[in-house]
Amino acid sequence: MPVETLLEVHNLVKVFHGRPAVDGVSFTIPKGRIVGLLGPNGAGKTTTIHMLLGLITPTSGRIAYFGREFSRHRRECLERINFASSFNTLQGRISVWENLAVFAHLYGLRRPRAKIESLASYFGITEMLHARYWDLSAGQRTRVNLIKALLNDPELILMDEPTAALDPDIADKTLALIEEIRDTSGVSILYTSHDMHEVTRICDDVIFLDRGRIFAHDSPLGLTKRIRTATLTLTFDGDQAIVERLLTERGQRFRFTHPYAVSIETTEQVIPSLVFDVGEAGVWITGIDVKKPTLEDVFLSIARGGSRVG
Amino acid sequence: MSGERIKGILLQEAYITRRSLEVIVDLFYTSAITVVAFGFVSRFLVGVTNPHTGSYLILGLLLWEVIRVNQYSLSVGSLWNIWSHNLSNMFVAPLSVTEYIVAHMLSALLKTLVTFCGICMIAAWGFHFDVLQMGVANLMLFFANLTVFAWSVGLVLLGVIFQIGPRIQALAWGTVFLFQPLTAAFFPLSALPPAVRAVAYALPPTFVFEAARGALGVPGTNWLYVGIAAAENVVYFALAASAFAWMLARSRASGRLARAEG
Left, alpha or beta for B202 (phi > 0: left; psi -120 to 50: alpha)? Predict the structure, then answer.
């Protein structure tokens, strides 16, 4: 059975003052998936999100939600999606309840009180419903923003760096909540972030944007596999000269970090044979550590020119 | 157009107004204190000049507040959302721009009605000036014309704020005062120099203020002036709505709408 496509973006372009901020971006978001939109500053992530929300008019390209053209069916599309961002807050001087009641009306909820109470209970902020929004902590505000984003039972939520202003503990709890939302409601999410650990943790697919173009689109694992090098660190009890000669003969890039430890930048495939050869040469290996590339390495590689990404 | 969504914006306006000392001061307090000050000036003028002069002054002020409060409320209503970084949340809800504007117009109208009733009562009790002496029909016609003119000004200013950003926010409460002398709000039109008078004729409130002053002396409705004001208002409102739509489209194209909240 084919998976339903919730969002289809085709050849999206946005030009500001003659310079393309987004340049021919195309992707889809299937039902139930969390897709990460990553890239260095100025890559075009926020401009893309803003076009997807109708806040910025694209120069060209097509956006369709649920098979319907966004430009022609704006209201119908917006009724079925929602948005959360650490850069947007709710009205500070009115209460959480009042803020949520306003959005409940904007989204045409039939039983707003029951919905707000149920979500407040789920997110553990029932006792804060009558506090003013600006009196809440950053973590509490994030939870309220998430409640706002869930008021209309959206099928797709666009999240623009929702944990950007949070300390690591609150960010972790927020991520756990997002995972829980995904698991319980099956909602799809388009998620922008600079935090590679977050993306690795929650995203099924990752789109790397760089200078307005999609540089890579794959699963987090698939992306890390594109960096073919890994770092092998061997600690040993034996003659350093033997190790040095062997690695030189094998054409490896290495450096001794300690008289009895060597760090070798190599490809994953040759690691077993290297370890075997060092052992065979009469050097007693006391420790093996393999550091595989992370999504952060991919990100840094792209941000610095992409030379290591295959 | 959805009544539910318009109700949502009206609710937000009510919540913000209730919690905002700034709004209470800018609208209700300023209006009340100004009418008290103008009341004393008009009482003073009754003794030293034409007996109508004092009445013209206080009548002009009461009607001027219809313009000021309506325009302020329409333009500043969106600034609250910009200042709170909440504008994007509003515009990514399934709310049409028409619903958003209509809701803010209704909110402005409600605030103006409350303020106007309050200052009319102050004028009546404190300074024996009964605005109803013009006649209820006249009052409604004048109020409606001034309201539509204020909405036109407010719409244009809102469009400018969306297009340029909140750095020109002072225009939201300052620009309207340009029309105070130009529309001869507190004095007969004949007091204006001929060149300025030509500009005044192009502005609907000029005819309203003239008709209102006339209605104090001679009962009845100056249909010619009310008609001219209404016709000009139709033109201005259509132009303002078009200008707003154009500026909003430009701000969406340039990305300023998304960046308006900083």
Answer: alpha
A106:B5 CB<8 A: yes
Residue A148, chain B, CB below 8 Å: the answer is yes
Q: How far is B245 from chain A (nearest CA, A)?
A: 14
Burial pattern B188-205, b for ≥16 Cβ within 10 A else e, equals ebeebeeeeeeebeebbb
Residue of B nearest to A80 (CA): B94
* Residue type at B95 in one-letter notation: L
Mind listing the pLDDT tens digit for each residue in B167-220?
Answer: 888 888 888 899 999 999 988 898 899 989 999 999 999 999 999 999 987 878
For the stretch B97-139, pLDDT in tens is: 999 999 999 999 999 999 999 999 999 998 888 999 999 999 9
A163 close to B (CB below 8 A): no
ipTM of the modeled complex: 0.87
Contacts of B258 in chain A (CB under 8 A): 46, 50, 55-56
A95 neighbourhood in chain B, CB within 8 Å: 15
Residue A308 confidence (pLDDT):
45
B 124-153 residues inside an 8 A Cβ radius of A: none
pTM exceeding 0.95? no
Do B85 and A56 count as a contact with CB atoms less than 8 A apart? no
Phi, psi of A36 (to 5 degrees): -90, 135
Instruction: Please state, in angstroms and rounded to a whole number, the distance separating the CA atoms of residues A144 and A147.
Output: 5
Go through B218-232 and write b for each residue having 16 or more CB atoms within 10 A of its CB, e for each that does not.
Answer: eeebbeebbebbbeb
Is the CB of residue A308 less than 8 Å from the CB of residue A223?
A: no
Q: What type of residue sits at position B144?
A: A
What values do phi and psi take at B213, rounded to 5? -65, -40
Domain residue ranges in chain B = 3-259
User: CB contacts < 8 Å between A and B, how many?
Assistant: 101
The listed CATH number (3.40.50.720, 3.40.50.2300, 3.30.70.1150, 3.40.50.261) that belongs to domain A228-292? 3.30.70.1150
Render pLDDT for B58-102 as a digit per residue (tens, 0 to 9): 999 999 999 999 999 998 888 888 888 888 888 999 999 999 999
Which CATH code, of 3.40.50.300, 1.10.3720.10, 3.30.390.10, 2.40.50.140, is assigned to A1-80+154-169+181-221? Answer: 3.40.50.300
Q: What is the b/e burial string over B60-76, where b = at least 16 CB atoms within 10 angstroms of the residue's CB?
A: bbbbbbbbbbbbbbbbb
Q: How far is CA B163 from CA A302, B92, B157, B167, in A?
A: 35, 18, 10, 11
Question: Do the chains contact at A54 and B95, CB–CB below 8 Å?
Answer: no
**Are the Cβ atoms of B2 and A107 closer than 8 angstroms?**
no
